[in-house]
Structures are given as structure tokens and as C-alpha cells.
Amino acid sequence: MSSLLQLFTRQGAFFLFAALEVVCLYLIITYNTPQQEVAASTWKMYSGEFMNRASKAQDYFHLQQLNDQLREENANLLSRMPNAFYTEALSNDTIQDDSLRQRYNYIAGEIINKSAPSANITYVVNRGHIHGVEPHLGVINGEGVVGIVTQVAQRHCRVMSITHHSLRISAGLRNKDFFGTLRWNGGDTRKAMLYAIPEYADVVIGDTIETTGYSNIFPTGVPIGSVLNKEINEGDNTLELEIELFNNLYGVKDAYIVRDLMKDDLNQLDNQE
Question: What pTM was estimated for this model as a whole?
Fold first, then answer.
């Protein structure tokens, strides 16, 4: 309180001057028609600009909310795709049970941070333990495979992109019974290599490469890229396919984290070996 009194004591003349200015301005505007019109016009101009900026800010936050809603809806739609189910068809003489069990579901997220352009691209997604994310889960978007979760915190996770030296993905040719291992060997982040395809495989430039589902990380049929070139590996009579990736890995924004609901069941088989 004493500090406030000292402020008024030291700056009393300034506050008195400011108060008189406000009173004079009020009297001029109130009792002079031209000044009233100028004041009204000025008020409309600045209030209109303020309302316009406030409306844009409100629209922006509403758009963010709408984007989050669309991601959730897309995740629900992905969970209803045929490759997200596991067929438990059982035939016993004339009795057949064609039930379907949910195999995969999806957690919608947003990429909020990306590593600087380098040899190994990684992302940070705004989903973590509290959302059901675990290490070694696949990540996709509308264009296809993005990468695999490597680290998980309470509310965020780190994703290793498909163009990372440590990543290996089981991939094959669409509508053809040939598959191999996809990996990135460095260099152009728009391309990767698919190895161990038999030499006799009928591979055509432009064929679509997709996930096989054998790794228990991605469902079957998630797009990866298309065949750009092929060469014969003379050492073991297999083909090496150069793949042009569908995803622009520097431009990705949305992320759908894939949860395999039968992961624990499959891990039991691995632990018994």
C-alpha cells in the first residue's frame, strides 16, 4: 500500500494530466457532432478489425479441433478395414462358424516434431503410454507405411521412419506370391530396396509393393511404394528391386499407430521356441 501511495506521490502530476486529457476528449466528442462522427467511424474500423482477428483465431482453434476429430474418424475406419480382422472360420463336418475377430486397431496422432534432414529420419508423435502406445508398433498414414515406434513416454513417442538404417520390413508384391525384406541403404530418402525376391518372379516395373503382415507389426496390404528398377543378384539368383516410396517422409503430418491385439498370443509362440 505504501508503495502505491509513493507512486501516486511521485507521478501525481502525470496521472492528473492523463485524467484531464480523457475528460477533455469525452467533452469534445460528446458536444461536437463532427467529432462524434469521426470517433464513431474510428471505433467501427478498429472494432471491426479486432472482431475479424478474433474470428480468425477462433476459426483456427476450431480447425485444429476438426482435424483431431477427422483423425479419430479415420482411425475408426481403418479399424473396420478387412485387413484389421482375423478370421476364426471353423469347419466341422456340416457345421461352420465364420466369425471375425478384431486383429488390429489404430491410435490417431499427430507428428509434432521431426529430426533435421539427415541419414536417419525420426518423428515425435503426440501419443504415449496413457494412449496405449508401446514400443515396436507400426505407424502408417493415408499414403502408406511411415515407420515403427522405438521409444515411448507418458504422452509422446518416437518413431523410426522407413528410411532409417536400422529398419527392416517384410514386404511383397501386390497380388503376387513373392515377398522379401525392405530396407533403406542411405542416399535418396524417396527410395528403398527390396531384397530376396526369387529371380523367376514375374516383376513388372510399376508393380505395387505392400506389407505382408508376417512381421506382426503392420497389417497385410499397407502400401509402401512401386517398383522403379530391378537387378539380378548373381550371388544367390535373386532379384534386388529399387522401390520408389509413396510417402514424402519430410511432409508427413498425420500418424496412425497400429496395435496388434493378438501380439501377446503370438509372442507366447516365440517364447516357447
Answer: 0.70
